[in-house]
Amino acid sequence: MMTISLAGALLLLSVIAINAIIHLPPFVAAVYFLLVAGLMLLEHIRRVKLLSLSWGLTLSWVCYRVVVLLAM
Question: How many domains does the structure of the chain reveal?
Answer without folding.
Answer: 1
